[in-house]
Specification:
Helices cover 48% and strands 18% of the residues. By secondary structure, it is of the alpha/beta class.
Length: 355
């Protein structure tokens, strides 16, 4: 009986020790749980994400868009934002995909030069639904309701007017229209599906008509915006008009004029018999810098640097400072020629002339 009593007392003692150990462990472990929860809720210093801005351009291998994108990225960085740049490669479907990719990546603002203006409503809706600020650079677009998307770039009509007037003055000064030994033709290199290009070439043609150029001697050259496309399109027009001795060339951009000048050179036309006025001047300046004979007699200088910096600033103001983008923000332009381009160009644009 005593043995059973001793055994029972021993078991009770062991149970008491075990209970005491469990009770002591609870308070020791309890504070650790809330401490871990608080730490996870409070971000460490310096972890706050910078706003991401994305710049998408329709043909980012062209010098103008290279300058635009680099300026956009540099300006965004100076404002404390992250930036990424993408090339839509003149592909409307890729343009839409890149906008969706930018939204998925967490972009707070997107600047895009669309490969086709018809994608405007789709990308505007995608950006609006995601709460992302969207601005159009260079080529205007509208949203799903037909309202213009905020625009950063140039005044297309004013650009065309300046180019046309420069071509008209050069033509008048050359005396070609009053020389019976010469027959003058005009190559108007046009992206006919793009309203901003039509704004340019329509006003170029208006100015050359005002100088006395017969409308029947103005030949449209449809192209995609690239030099090779312009060259391929201009070749048959030149061949079909063997009686034209002197040519005036203008277009939507420098690439258009360059392509037409290449086609004229292939056809054996001397640069002395050509008045080409570029739009951009980033191609026109290359033979000027090299002091080579060229059909580029003048050009309208536009800087992608200005547009890129303005676009990044507009997005930052909207996202960080809550300032709604203006309906349109225009960058300056000016006519240049071989005698003054070095005085007008910024350092980066001038350096590109020697590439």
């Amino acid at each position: 009986m005593k043995r059973h009593l001793y055994f029972l007392i021993a078991m009770l003692a062991l149970l008491a020790v075990a209970l005491a150990g469990c009770t002591a462990a609870v308070p020791a472990a309890a504070p650790a749980e809330p401490a871990a929860t608080e730490a996870s809720a409070e971000p460490a210093a310096g972890d706050a994400a910078k706003p991401l801005f994305v710049v998408i351009n329709k043909s980012a291998d062209q010098q103008y868009f290279i300058d635009l994108q680099n300026s956009f990225v540099d300006t965004a960085a100076s404002l404390g934002a992250d930036a990424k740049k993408f090339d839509a490669k003149l592909d409307p479907n890729l343009g839409v995909s890149l906008v969706n990719d930018a939204i998925s990546a967490g972009a707070k603002g997107i600047a895009i030069t669309v490969p086709d203006q018809t994608i405007g409503p789709a990308i505007a809706k995608a950006a609006k639904d995601a709460g992302v600020v969207l601005i159009a650079t260079d080529d205007s677009i509208v949203d799903q309701d037909g309202a213009p998307v905020p625009f950063v770039g140039f005044d297309g009509k004013d650009m065309g007017k300046k180019v046309g007037e420069a071509a008209a003055k050069l033509l008048t000064d050359a005396g070609w229209l009053t020389d019976a030994a010469k027959k003058v033709g005009v190559l108007s290199v046009e992206v006919q599906t793009l309203s901003v290009c039509n704004d340019r070439t329509d006003n170029e043609k208006a100015a050359i008509l005002a100088a006395g150029m017969p409308e029947a001697q103005i030949f449209p050259v449809p192209y995609t915006g690239e030099a090779l496309s312009a060259q391929d399109a201009a070749g048959p027009v030149i061949t079909a008009n063997p009686d034209v001795t002197n040519w005036v060339v203008f277009g939507c951009n420098d690439e258009g004029v360059l392509g037409a000048l290449n086609a004229l050179a292939t056809a054996g036309v001397s640069p002395d018999d050509v008045i080409g006025v570029g739009l951009g001047s980033y191609e026109a300046c290359k033979p000027w810098a090299a002091e080579q004979p060229t059909g580029f007699k003048a050009g309208l200088f536009i800087s992608g640097l200005d547009v890129g910096a303005t676009a990044a600033t507009v997005l930052n103001d909207a996202v960080v400072n809550g300032k709604a983008p203006e309906a349109a923000s225009y960058a300056p332009t000016s006519i240049v020629d071989p005698t003054n381009f070095k005085d007008v160009f910024d350092a980066i644009s001038l350096a590109n002339c020697s590439k």
